[in-house]
Amino acid sequence: MADTKITKRADDYTRWYTDVIAAAEMADHAPVKGCMVIRPNGYAIWEKMQRALDDMFKATGHQNAYFPLLIPESFLEKEAEHVEGFAPEVATVTHAGSGKLDEPLVIRPTSETIIWNSYRNWIQSYRDLPLLINQWANVVRWEKRTRLFLRTTEFLWQEGHTAHATYEDAEKEALTILEVYRRFAEDYMAMPVISGLKSESEKFAGADHTYTIEAMMQDGKALQAGTSHHLGQNFAKAFDVQFQTEKGGLEYVCATSWGVSTRLIGALIMAHGDDRGIVIPPRLAATQLAIIPIFRKPEQQAEVMGRIQKLTRDMDSVSYHIDDREQRSPGWKFNHWEQRGIPIRMEIGPKDIEKNQVVLVRRDTGEKSFVSQDGLHRTVRDMLLTIQGDLYKKALEFRESRSRHVDELDSFNGILDGEAGFLWSHWCGSAACEEKIKDQTKATIRCIPSGDEREEGKCIACGQSSDRRVIFGRAY
RNA sequence: CGGGGCGUAGCGUAGUCUGGUCAUCGCGCCUGCUUUGGGAGCAGGAGGCCGGGAGUUCGAAUCUCCCCGCCCCGACCA
């Protein structure tokens, strides 16, 4: 398979991003516009993400289930805001076999409606609550403009859908998941995020309110990395899901929904990648250590391979790969694994065997170290931990260097056209001001950060009083 | 759907303004030998309806018109 070169980091970040994906052989454009073929290298990351997230969902009491891909069109229409929000981007099936369907079917853009149609039958009593379910699935949204991983017509995701007896219980659930997402982003992806509340105009269509985690990419633009919605009783009312309370009354349940998608792979690339390719944090790397034997003569090969066997015998906590392809040169292999973001490369040749050492090279820094073969397992394990931590620190430092308090709307464009980043500014809370700022600067409110950092100030758009700063930024 | 750009080998491209040995170069692929600690070297080789169609011309990758496709910017993005 062809090995692509990343020519150089173009002034155009978009170009760099697609180059990196191509070089790492992660995805291709599909024949259907906006759809993508996820290659094994890209999918391996998704599998690691799935496993980690699934464990976290299970640990917070959730179960997996599956609901249909096709949804009667009328279901979407039951919730007013929901249909208004999704109508422009749903794909519809009108024909099946040789005939036209009586009622068109939409390909799910999200599954609230079909799931709530089931929940109506599943929920009778307060004893049935809470209902905590997650689904791993694909969805289709016919966006006008698409980008590999970040916004594709079809994408893979998980969507959680829960039902609760009280508003407070649902709120607690939404925040529990928000915290799961924050931990996943920071602990696994090594990508710092700011969690908070979406403004009214940015929230999910049909939600009471929406929580989000927002990350910063290396060009200073924001990326919404995950959302957790408190749906209130909107869907319960639309699908008539009531339950008998402990005291015998009849109530509508409160709901949440939440999801993260293959967009996270795009986030990972843009948060850590460099001109040599992607950089995978150790906790998400299917291969953490690429071992490259070096030799000239057959007897050296036997010796080196023998030593590798011995060294890897007890490496059960590190996932390693021995690249013993004879038709490729060591230099080629170095490059190959770098483009694919493997955290550590190990070189071992006759010279190393003589000195009882190996060469370890970090993908994130390029730092080369000569370490003893004794205790190699522990050395590698420690280095993986260090890389995981350093990647996070580096990304956090970058985000902080691109975050500033801004009190003049006039300076937005200057900053965002130059060193783009997060602008912490006062906002009065009105949709009109939000809109005005967006029109003038292309910056949107990424979130109203969680936490109680109150500060008196004046809205940068209208001058009215505000009691906290919110985050503005240009977003993907 | 608006604005801009681009379609030449599997991929990336030169050539188009000024029509005439122009089908170029790199990567990749195949064969052989030498190589292998940063994308190996040399030699040889395979591979093209120059996006499609119609025109102009003695002659079109090149000029004209139409069509198709892709990319970027914008609108849009729960």
Task: State the main characteristics.
RNA-binding, 476 residues, five-stranded mixed sheet, single chain, globular, alpha+beta
Structure commentary:
This protein has 14 helices and 25 strands. The protein is an alpha+beta fold and 476 residues long. Helix 13 links the parallel strand 20 and strand 21. It starts with 12 loop residues before the first helix and ends with a strand. The model has no long low-confidence stretch (mean pLDDT 93).
Brief digest:
With 476 residues, this protein is of the alpha+beta class. It has 14 helices and 25 strands. 41% of the residues are buried.
**Considering DSSP H and I runs of 4 or more, what fraction of the residues is helical?**
25-40%
| Discrete helix count | 14
Report the sheet with the most strands, covering strand number, pairing sense and barrel closure. Answer: 11 strands, mixed
What order do the strands of the largest sheet run in, or round the barrel if closed? 3-7-8-14-11-10-9-22-25-21-20
**Strand share of the residues?**
25-35%
**Uncertain residue segments:** none
- Overall, the morphology is globular
Query: What is the assembly state of the chains in this entry?
Result: single chain
Overall mean pLDDT? 93
Secondary structure tally: strands? 25
Q: Gyration radius, to the nearest Å? A: 25 Å
Which structural class best describes the helix and strand composition?
A: alpha+beta
N→C terminal distance: 31 Å
